[in-house]
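Schema walk-through. Below, the input block comes first and the output block second. Nothing else is stored per chain. Lengths vary across the set, and this one has 169 residues.
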Amino acid sequence: MKHASLAVVLFAFLLSPVGLVLAAEDIRQAPSCLHCGMDREAFSHSRMLVTYDDGTGAGTCSIHCLAIELAVNIDKTPASIMVGDFGSKKLIDAEQAFWVIGGKKPGVMSRQAKWAFAEKEAAEAFIKENGGAPATFDEAMKAAYESMHADLKMIRERRQMKKMKGHGH
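--- output ---
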């Protein structure tokens, strides 16, 4: 129920003129990723916000965690999927964004990076500097699902190493 009311407030806020200016309000309302607990402000350049047609929704740190969110909620229909623009960190429509898959810049929760840009020129400049390939939102989502097993294995291993270091091993 907490997420349902949060989504309704966020959706209404983001559609208002004030919401368009202060889109980072979603970070205040959902400061950590629903699925992995990561700080959404620290990852505002990759964060995502889904609002379902029933008024519920969720904030995630990345397209990786959005893929988990959409799989877990298979019976819900997304009304809106927003993503942080890589450069400005402002929320933009994920389906209208210019995506880049891969490149030398490390991804968020994934070995293969997936970045969104509001402007095609920004995506092209990123590719020129960092590598990667242009993609659509559907292609980025497909890549997120295809790498899910390897990415989850990597995350578990990293967290286990941190735990071992924390215990003086």
